[in-house]
Specification:
Blueprint: H1 4-25, H2 31-47, H3 58-74
């Protein structure tokens, strides 16, 4: 990926790890939930490349994980 898609992918990765840290630190996510999300991230990292065009699906996959983490940690959408 190049250009803005690559930047979006990097932002999704950064936000994922920040949300994992916030969720674990604030105790909104238990240890089991943190482990489940990391396993799902690893499953996407190692599993998606085996699909046709799966490499291009990793960033959107991580973005969906980010959305679920936001809903779990902040109990809904973040108000801007």
């Amino acid at each position: 990926m190049t250009g803005s898609a690559a930047i979006g992918g990097w932002i999704a990765q950064l936000v994922f790890w920040v949300l994992i840290a916030i969720g674990a630190g604030s105790r909104e996510l238990g240890l089991k939930a943190v482990a489940v999300f990391i396993v799902m991230w690893l499953a996407g990292l190692f599993g998606l490349p085996h699909l046709v065009l799966g490499v291009m699906l990793f960033s959107p996959y991580v973005a969906v994980l980010d959305i679920v983490l936001v809903f779990l940690i902040f109990k809904g959408d973040v108000k801007l």
